[in-house]
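Memo to structure team: turn this sequence into structure tokens by end of day. - J.P.
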Amino acid sequence: MMRALWTAGSGMVAQQGNIDVISNNLSNVNTTGFKKSRTDFQDLMYQTIRQAGATTGPDNQLPTGVQIGHGVRQVATQKIYTQGSFQQTGNSLDMAIEGDGFYQIAMPDGTIAYSRDGSFKRDSQGRICTSEGYALEPQIAIPAEATDVTISADGRVTATIPGQTEPQEIGQIQLARFVNSAGLDNIGRNLLKETAASGAPVVTNPGTDGSGTIVQKYLEMSNVQVVEEMVNMIVAQRAYEVNSKAITTADEMLGQANNLKR
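Reply from structure team:
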């Protein structure tokens, strides 16, 4: 009877974590480049009461055994890197990646972070940077006198300079790809860090070696589907309620056993 209490309790804890993940997905439904997460569950150890295949006589063998599980746990939260929808902005520094790849962002400590958020700005030095002021890597500086900036699908950045007949190429955007993108470490601010699980980045120009292409004046929106998350939330809520009902039932059974009289 006590086993049922702990087993159902593990189910409530697991579903609480599931709701936390769903809530984070819903709260970032309008976050540029955000990728939804999915909770993966795993059953816990089993207590074997009777072993399958055990012999009960000279010619008898048990076809099945008796095993009682001890509940569930939340074993992983996996990022799902499906393509988000595109939103046209008209801003020349807004970029969306159509396909695989991440922008490289230079962090203040000298390391490189990675992002799908293409809502770039220009800082006081003319460098293309994120909303936090972190520069795009490799660094690209837009001349102060430039009147227009064009970014091609293969990442070439050109600027129109007054007095020049041809646009001037001022930089090349490069994208990073990973063997296991789901293994990247989320550090907030739409940034991710490389880990041993993700593998080393493969840096290429857009449109080459499996990397996606750049779409200028568009932003990639979140891939969160509100209806899907609402359904997942209802399922998680009902699973939480059922586990709590199992605890109540086990408690009532213990109460009945405690009230037995000779």
